[in-house]
């Protein structure tokens, strides 16, 4: 099985892009609640970055 190496810069970029660089509470929790009120559930990893709301 091949190993995949990921650089620290790539990880940090992903964390920022997904909004995981802030504190869990209140930053991430309030962002999540605001997004669900707007019916914005983000993107699906399984279905090639399609909006989850479109899949529902």
Structure commentary:
The longest helix is centred in the middle third of the chain and has 14 residues, at 24-37. The radius of gyration is 14 Å and the shape is flat. The chain has helices at 8-17, 24-37, 52-55. The chain starts with 7 loop residues before the first helix and ends with a helix. The chain is mostly helical and 56 residues long. It has a domain at 22-56. It has three helices and no strands.
Key terms for this structure?
mainly alpha; 56 residues; flat; 3 helices
Q: What's a quick, concise take on this entry?
A:
By secondary structure, the chain is mainly α. It is built from three helices and no strands.
Rg over CA atoms, rounded to whole Å, is 14 Å
Structural class: mainly alpha
Helix/strand order: HHH
- Total number of strands: 0
Biggest beta sheet attributes: none
Q: Look at the structure and give the mean pLDDT.
A: 91
Q: Quick one: overall form? A: flat
Helix content: 40-55%
Distance between the termini: 35 Å
Low-confidence stretches: none
**How many DSSP helices?**
3
